[in-house]
Design goal:
By secondary structure, this protein is α/β, with parallel strands linked by helices. The protein has a single domain, classed as TIM Barrel (Alpha-Beta Barrel), CATH 3.20.20. Helices cover 33% and strands 7% of the residues. Strands 1-2-3-4 form a four-stranded parallel beta sheet, with helices on one face. Residues 21-181 form the NADP-dependent oxidoreductase domain. Belongs to the aldo/keto reductase family. It comes from Staurois parvus.
Length: 204
């Protein structure tokens, strides 16, 4: 989502309204392709793109480099099955942010949604493997081929987040966790819902 060019990251007018900028996503992508061709980056990805926006890029005449990744919210309460399958078909890796749920900052987050790590199923499966609900949630996405990027400033939790490769979830456990999907999006970005490229109005 583009904002008015200038020094402010998220510029607003005197009434506090965000100042948007209409930018052609394909033109932006062509500029990024030039960066890759110039050796300034290894690969190109996108974030929060829905299927329509991805297809704009994938179907762009003269496409030189397709997106290698799409960074989106993804966790057991928001499993993104349709977007995940679409990206798999086009060899685009899903990078899941907020894989453990997220903070309860009302500016960014739907705080009416239940905390993911208190889920009974995740905790029950974790007890079986002597793992935390967080480790089970991360392992679930890893087994689905989703790259996870949990955020933590706590050294012990950072270490714990890496300790998910010494166990595997059974097919039944994977199905049980998939069944937890509530289509709950924690990060709604509602303050920008009137932006012409706001991505979350489409089904996926």
């Amino acid at each position: 989502m583009a904002f008015k060019p200038g020094d402010d990251f998220y510029p607003r007018d005197e009434n506090g309204k965000y100042l948007y900028h209409e930018t052609d996503l394909c033109a932006t992508w062509e500029a990024l392709e030039e960066c890759k061709d110039a050796g300034l980056c290894k690969s190109l990805g996108v974030s929060n793109f829905n299927r329509r926006q991805l297809e704009l890029i994938l179907n762009k005449p003269g496409l030189k480099h397709k997106p290698t990744s799409n960074q989106v919210e993804c966790h057991p309460y928001f499993t993104q099955p349709k977007l995940l399958e679409f990206c798999r078909q086009h060899e685009i890796v899903i990078v899941g942010y907020s894989p453990l749920g997220t903070c309860r900052d009302a500016m960014w987050v739907n705080v009416s949604s239940p905390p993911l790590l208190e889920d009974a199923t995740l905790n029950a499966i974790g007890k079986k493997y002597s793992k935390s609900a967080a480790q089970v949630a991360l392992r679930f996405n890893i087994q689905r081929g989703v790259v996870v990027i949990p955020k933590s400033f706590n050294p012990d939790r950072i270490r714990e987040n890496f300790q998910i490769f010494d166990f595997s979830l059974t097919e039944q456990e994977m199905e049980d966790i998939e069944a937890l999907n509530k289509n709950i999006r924690y990060v709604e970005l509602l303050m920008w819902s009137d932006h012409p490229e706001y991505p979350f109005k489409d089904e996926y």
